[in-house]
Structures are given as structure tokens and as C-alpha cells.
Amino acid sequence: MNTVNGGISFWYAQEGTPAPREPLPGDTTADVCVVGGGYTGLWTAYYLKKAVPFLNIIVLEGKFCGYGASGRNGGWLYNGIAGRDRYAKAHGHDAAVRLQRAMNDTVTEVIETAAAEKIDADIHRGGVLEVAYTPAQLERLKAYHSVDVAFGETDRRLLGARETADRVRVTGAVGSTWTPHGARVHPVKLVRGLAATAEALGVTIHESTPVTEIRPKHAITPYGTVRAPYVLRCTEGFTAGIKGHKRTWLPMNSSMIVTDPLPASLWDDIGWTGRETLGDMAHAYMYAQRTADDRIALGGRGIPYRYGSATDNDGRTRPATVDALRDVLVRLFPRLAGTGIAHAWSGVLGVPRDWCATVTLDRSTGLGWAGGYVGSGVATANLAARTLRDLIQQDSGQSGPTDLTTLPWVNHKVRSWEPEPLRWLGVHALYAAYRAADRREATARTATTDRIATLADRVSGRH
Ligand SMILES: Cc1cc2nc3c(=O)[nH]c(=O)nc-3n(C[C@H](O)[C@H](O)[C@H](O)COP(=O)(O)OP(=O)(O)OC[C@H]3O[C@@H](n4cnc5c(N)ncnc54)[C@H](O)[C@@H]3O)c2cc1C
After folding, report:
1. Beta-bridge partner residues of 252
2. Any idea where the FAD dependent oxidoreductase domain is (predicted)?
3. Separation of alpha carbons 336 and 258, rounded Å
4. What single-letter DSSP state applies at residue 31?
5. H helix intervals, 3-83
């Protein structure tokens, strides 16, 4: 069977693209204007409306809700947050522990809220399993495990080769870690359910309405301007498309493939009955899930970055990337060599210059934003949204500081990315270095992380 390429994502091929909502009919006003209809924007609108039902909230979405990463991701709802270790250095260990605990709670919050709102998103809480299959990966796995435990994840477990195989039989796996703070989701079912829920509460959503410029109290579109005391930018990997934001967050590509449904005989071989989300410890790491209809969806970095912060062509993916992801799949499960790849697609995520996610409300202008989640935004977007709600309530005098507004990622400032061609050269060199390091580690006998990867981390500002 031929592999479908692009078409936004497999998740949309399964669910169908939604009927469009009306664009902005002209100039108007609101109490809060949210720019971007992904998880961040929609959760924010949802929580604000729940907290203050009389608020007039308008969401402006350039295409349709879930067009971006929220409709294309790997469906790992998990407790990772970009920048925790850096926040620990800047704000102290205890502050980072609070951030980690908030992320752990966020996984439960999403699951419970989806259930309460009757959003059926194929959620299965099987935890997160991350496997190592080289000596260097195993060393890194153990080191990360110790750090995660020190940050308060005491329920995380280090598993040997046999225990790993009891869960998922990844060829050559020598160990793994498992944490309960993770669940598999169907990304589109979640984002679509969220949009419908927010709308049913009374949030107004305008689609096909790209915001070209954001100014204090103004969101400007080709169809008119929304004036609002609070304007929130929730555009993640697409942020470079807004006037003045070319170098704010770098749009990084991530690509995915999904297999045809696998027969029971193959699942007998593979195991994976717990439906954990599955990752590895390679530098150019992969992430995977067993879908509700028994396929494997697997992702990784393809072409990591396109020149000039170009973002998207409805998810079309280079054939070489599809082949590379298939090689990763077969490396994990050799019996899948003959399995059909039903669909391949890509999307963009937002990467700040210091690789730290952030949520901010500038009290002097009423401008807010959240994102820069790098590859960990499915759960983080929910924490960001609840934090934006609290920041707005605090700013408008309805409440004081909360447990969320005092987390260390709030109001974090970071410098812009370098101009081109440095941006393009830097990111390509980084991922070439990671791939080279993975190749060298695959044949090395030592357990040390390859020097190239360590150097790349340091030069890129990633660690
Ligand atoms: C292939 C892939 C796999 C991933 N896998 C995972 C995973 O398994 N787990 C995980 O935690 N994270 C994952 N991520 C990251 C995660 O999906 C994102 O961090 C998260 O969805 C971000 O949500 P968001 O709402 O901030 O951004 P988005 O979902 O990108 O939403 C932004 C929205 O803003 C709209 N928009 C953009 N510009 C404008 C404008 N000017 N005017 C109006 N609207 C605009 C876009 O159309 C889009 O709908 C993955 C990302 C990708 C691309």
C-alpha cells in the first residue's frame, strides 16, 4: 500500500478535517483575545471561561483549531517540561521540584478534565517507558533517572533488560525507565473535543483568521481588529509568522509515521500490552505510541529546521525522512520490516534560544504568551493555560499570587535567535552532530556519551 504523505496528519485522515467556523466578521472588542487555537489557546479560553463565566473571550485561529502541533503530535501526554534543569540552576532546586510536581499533576488534570467534559480522546494511562539499547544510552538513562528522582519523581522506576522485555520487546534493549506520569492520547480527538467544549461554554472561535500583528490591546487580522485588554499569543511553532517575531522562537520540525494495524500475532511478539508511550535515549530520539486501533505511530526529527523559519506545507514530509523513521521502527521491531506505513506527516514545535518553555503576562501591556515547549507541549500547554488564567485573575485584582503564578517558568525572559544564515547552519549542525553521535555510540564499547553530542549541547545552549 502507498504511504499517504502530508494531509496535515494521520489523526485527521482518521477523523476527517472539521467543518470550518466563521472568520472574524469585522472589528470588535473582547475581554480576552486568544491568538491560536491549539491546546494552549483552547485550554486557556476554557479555564478562563470556567473561572469567570461572564468574560467575553475570542479565539482567533489562522486555519482551524488543531491545525498545528496539537493536531499532529505523538500523543504523549506526559510530565516532561523543557528547561526544568535550567530553572533549577536559576531559581533553586526547590522551585524546580515544584515545577516538576505541577507537571506530574497536570497529566492527571488533563485526564480528569477530559473525562468530566466527556471528551473521548482514546486516553490510556500506561505511563512512559524509555529504553536504552547501547552502553552510552544506558549510562544516560541511569543518570537522567537519578536526576528525575532528585526532582521528586520518586515513583519512577529503573528496569533491567528482562523487566523491559516484560513490557515491550524492543530488540537489544538493555534497560529502561518507567514513570506513571504519562498517558497515550489521540491528539485530534483531544483538540477537537476541547474546541467544542470551550465553544459550548460560550467562548467565541473564529477560524481562517490569521493575526498579522499583535500590539498592546490589539490583535490585527485581514478581516478586522479585536481590541481587548488582554491579548494572548499561543502560536508556538508558527510564532515567526507574526510581525516582529521572526526570531522569537525557532520553528523546529518533527515528523511521524504510522503503520497499518498490526495483527495479534505480531503483538504477541512485541508485547506492549500496557500501551505505555515509548521512547529511547538516542540523541536524535524517537517517540512512539500503540494506537487505540493497534498501529504503531512513531516520530523523530526529520529535517529539523527550514531556512528563514519557514513552517509548514500541510505536513508534507521528505521521502528520506520517512525512510529514516521506518529504519528506526525496524531497528526496534525487526519483524515489522514488511509492515505497511499508512501515513507520514510533519509539524512544527517552538524552540526558544535557551530551550526553556515559558508562560508570561506583561502587566504593563496586557500581552501574554505561552509556549516554547520544544517537544513536550501536550501536557505543558495545560499547565500554561491554567497559569495564564491565574495571572489574568491576579492582574485584574480578582485573586492574589497562586501556586501556579509563582512557578519558576513564569515571566522568564530569553534572547532572540540569531539572524539567518546562522540559525539554519546552527540547527543543521546540531542535528548532524546528534546523528553522528548516535552512530558512534551504536558501535562503541564504552558507556560514555559521545563527545560530539556533549559539545553540540553546550554550543547550542540546550544544556
Ligand atoms: C510531530 C510532532 C509530534 C509531537 N509529539 C509530542 C508528544 O508526543 N508529546 C508532547 O508533549 N508534545 C509533542 N509535540 C509538541 C506538542 O504537540 C506541542 O507543544 C503542542 O501541541 C503545542 O500546542 P500549542 O497550542 O501551543 O501550539 P499549536 O498546536 O501549534 O497551535 C498553534 C495554533 O496557532 C495557529 N496560528 C499560528 N499562527 C497564527 C496567527 N498568526 N494567527 C492566528 N492563528 C495562528 C495555528 O494554526 C495553530 O492552530 C509534538 C509536536 C509535533 C510537531
Report:
1. 349
2. 31-391
3. 12
4. S
5. 10-15, 39-51
Predicted TM-score (pTM) of the model is: 0.94
Pairwise CA distance, residues 413 & 101, whole Å:
22
Q: How far apart are CA 218 and CA 220, in angstroms?
A: 6
- The length of the chain is 463
Q: What percent of the chain has pLDDT over 90?
A: 82
- Cell 521528505 sits on residue: 318
Contact (Cβ atoms closer than 8 angstroms) between residue 337 and residue 171: no
DSSP state of 320: H
Would you say the CB of residue 69 lies under 6 angstroms from ligand 1? yes
On whether the CB atoms of residues 253 and 241 are closer than 8 A, the answer is: no
Ligand 1 centre to CA of 257 (Å) is 18
**Strands across the sheet with 213-215, in order?**
28-29, 224-227, 218-221, 213-215
Structural domains of the chain, ranges and CATH numbers in brackets = 1-123+183-250+353-417 (3.50.50.60), 124-182+251-352+420-460 (3.30.9.10)
Cell numbers given for 267: 503483538
Q: Where are the alpha helices (DSSP H) in 354-396?
A: 380-395
Q: Could you read off the pLDDT of 300-319 as tens digits, one per residue?
A: 865 565 666 566 789 999 99
Torsion of CA 374, 375, 377, 383, to 10 degrees: -60
**CB of 11 closer than 8 Å to CB of 186:** yes
Assign residue 159 a region (left: φ > 0; alpha: ψ between -120 and 50; beta: otherwise).
Answer: beta
**Which of 9, 43, 242, 349 is the best mutation target for the ligand 1 pocket, counting ligand atoms within 8 Å of the beta carbon and taking the most?**
349
Residues forming a β-bridge with 289: 297
Query: In this structure, which residue's CA is closest to atom 4 in ligand 1?
Result: 73
pLDDT digits (tens, 9 = 90+) for 372-407: 999 999 999 999 999 999 999 999 999 999 999 999
User: Nearest to residue 301, comparing CAs of 261, 328, 278?
Assistant: 328
Measured between its terminal Cα atoms, the distance across the chain in Å is 42
152: left (phi over 0), alpha (psi -120 to 50) or beta: left
317, three cell numbers: 514530509
Q: Are 226 and 57 in contact (CB under 8 A)?
A: no
CA distance 424 to 422: 6
Element (H, E) at 322: helix 319-332
Closest C-alpha to ligand 1, atom 9: 76
